[in-house]
UniProtKB/TrEMBL annotation:
InterPro entries: LOG (IPR005269), LOG_fam (IPR031100). GO terms for molecular function: hydrolase activity, hydrolyzing N-glycosyl compounds. This is Cytokinin riboside 5'-monophosphate phosphoribohydrolase. Its EC number is 3.2.2.n1. Pfam families: Lysine_decarbox. Keywords: Cytokinin biosynthesis, Hydrolase. Belongs to the LOG family. One of its GO terms (cellular component) is cytosol. GO terms for biological process: cytokinin biosynthetic process.
Amino acid sequence: MKRICVFAGSSQGNDPAYLEKTQMLGKLFAEKGIELVYGGAKSGLMGVLADEVLKGGGNVTGIMPTRLFEKEIIHPDITKMVEVETLHERKSKMSELADGYIALPGGFGTFEELFETISWAQIGIHTKPVALYNIKGYYTPLVNLIDHAIQAGFVPKDNRDLIINSDHPEKLLELMHHKG
């Protein structure tokens, strides 16, 4: 995998582990020569991840709709910034560039991007690996909800395999590599 799209929070959360584990992932991206594709902001876990990739000599591509330029602080040091008109174009461009996806802890925007990506995989729009970086069990309630949806008959059992889940960055990338 040469490029991975990461969805992440625009804040850092209230546990230092979110920051530390995000930094570990960024260092790993740089070491393995994986280009980061993300929303382009300097804030939150998004900015932490981009900073670590850049610090390690890696490449970072940010994709941001013009109307968010005023709301979010654009990361000034990233390798490349792609300006698009809408959030839909942003997600489409991310998908076009990425070989896989990782969701770090985040809020509604992260959830929305994650679920759209899983939905696209479910209906065959892409076959790229989708992973949850489950720092401190952040995504465990979501995994439990997905398992509940499977048990209740709303999600086909084999679709559970669409989501990779790990709290260890090396293992996460290894699982993604084998699936991709």
